[in-house]
Amino acid sequence: MARFFVDEFPAEGTEYTLTGENAEHARVLRLRPGESVTLCDGQGADCPCTVAEGLTLLAGAPVPCPAEPRARVSVWIAFPKADKAEHVIQKAVELGAAELVLFPSRFCVSRPEGKALKNKLERWQKIARSAAEQSRRGVIPAVRAVESYGEALREAALAELPVLFYENESGYSLHDALAELGGLRSGGPDASGGRPMAAPTVSLMTGAEGGFSGEEIEKARAAGMKICTLGPRILRCETAPLAGLTAVMFALGEI
Q1: pLDDT value of residue 72
Q2: What pLDDT sits at residue 189?
């Protein structure tokens, strides 16, 4: 079923005409009268519609998007070389990431700034939008960058489960971290009456091609990050965030 992100839903029972990029996409799809399509507001809601004629749709009643994870998982990626960030962003959006944040670290070879960074962010956001449409997400995850490793730590550490994956860690795993915070399981009852608890927040931080320095790890530990291993195998910088995200989503019941 075709999906189109829009700024605002039409009222139920009224007609809505696709415009701009949505119209171009619809023409490629060659939509026919009677076909079902979905409008998305980018905030987690869907509006089922029926094609009336051409680019004109008849709107139904909005409903919550069933593809949106209840857990909010932010993925923090040290700037990688070449176009590796594009791959990570696309796949992380498909897997359910709430946002993607890029940051500089000691071993980053790529350090885009100014206009170069602005151009990259625009392209990365388009990739996130396309991946959200393809995977039937109800939200387009934001893609942004912070100026320093310290700033990244301060923000990432605010999550209920703030994790930094480090290749030289061996005694503490993501499984251990999740076990400590077992009450965060999405949809579980709280301790005071069985009401559904709020969605847990998780941040996952990974390094660039050279990983993290010992000094950076100590700073992360002091900031409150949980330093975890992803297993005995060394993963590439574009593999680690996706492996960690998949594991967390599975543990929280989202896969």
Answers
A1: 92
A2: 39
Q: Is the dihedral of CA 190, 98, 93, 6 positive or negative?
A: positive
Q: Is residue 83 within 8 Å of residue 55, measured between CB atoms?
A: no
Please check whether residue 110 is in contact with residue 238, taking contact to mean a CB–CB distance below 8 angstroms: no
pTM of the model: 0.82
And the tokens for 132? 């959200």
Q: Where are the domains of the chain?
A: 2-64, 72-251
Give, for 93, the enclosing helix (H) or strand (E): helix 84-95
Which of the listed CATH numbers 3.90.1010.10, 3.40.50.920, 3.90.780.10, 3.40.1280.10 matches domain 72-251?
Answer: 3.40.1280.10
CA distance to 88, 179, 188, 191, per residue, from 194 (Å): 37, 21, 8, 7
175 has a pLDDT exceeding 50: yes
| Local structure of 128: helix, strand or coil | helix
Q: Cβ(189)–Cβ(197) under 8 Å?
A: yes
Residues pairing with 211 in the sheet: 208
Dig out the tokens for 77 from the structure.
Answer: 């990626």
Retrieve residue 52's tokens.
């009336």
Count of all residues that appear for the chain in the document: 255
Domain 2-64 has CATH 2.40.240.20: yes
For 48, the 3-state DSSP assignment is strand
Q: Identify the pLDDT of residue 198.
A: 59
